[in-house]
Design goal:
Helices cover 53% and strands 5% of the residues. By secondary structure, it is mainly alpha-helical. The N and C termini lie far apart (80 Å).
Amino acid sequence: MTPDLVPAPAPIAAAAPPVRPAPLDRLPGSSSDDPFHRLAAAWLLSYGGHTQTAYRRDIQAWAAWCEQLGVHPLAAQRFHVDAWVRHLSSQPQARTARPASAATIARRLSALSRFYDYAIHDAELLTHSPVASVRRPRVSDESQAVGLTAEQLRRLLRAAGEHSPRSAALAALLIFCGLRISEALGADVRDFGHDHGHRVLKITRKGGKSARVPLPPPVVRALEDYLAERTSGPLFLAAGGERRYPYISAKQQFDRLCRTAGLPAGVTPHSLRHSYATENLRLGAALQDVQDAMGHADPRTTRRYDRSRHSLDRSPNYLLAASLTHGESDGEGVR
């Protein structure tokens, strides 16, 4: 069994329940491995990249919760999952020091549901899922990211350009192309090329899908200035130029640039993706074109990024106020 696919390296304290021996024998690993580890390893093999990493983390969190309750994950019942949801929604979490958001809880339950469905229908190891009837939290139709105005985006671009060629190139990719920061940091120099007369960057999206992103002139100039004569290796390098620029370092630098640019609190790299959608739709870009550019399978996902600005800018409140105040100035309004 591939070691990095095992979701929990430590043995599970609770005893494993009886499972069907024939299906278990078809899973990775040996009889000395816990069946939950073997099942999770087999399930994760069907995913790659960031999706596999996120699902592995969710399964690890679930296994840790089951260990606290003294129950084996393959013997868990619905009330164990309900207790986990209550814990996630009410207690500060280790990574954020605050309760998990509805979106985070929904994502974790989705991963858990997929895992147990695999155990039932594909591995044929279990007969029921403890997640089957668990109520999912309602996720807002609006993106929770802080959106930026065009002027704020210009200030961030200036701050990045004044800081370094690397910051300028990364900011340009995120702002002008709407990339996730993981997509930009995961690219290599060889992915920066040409396609049908366009300068493009090949990236790996969520789920492991590849895409070629067309690069507008400001992004091309920023990348060429940063890369200089470099022709191989990661697109973005860490200090010293020997390894890939890690997310934590990029995030810390992004926070410093936001402070320099005088941006509001709560801005994250994902805010730039939010702003990419909002500004493009405001400028008249077709929803389908923005959806394709962002790699969304469902247009409703793209629509979430614009819903707040859409509802504010097009609110009928402005129409009524303009009509009544205009009539009042003509001496025809209601007194």
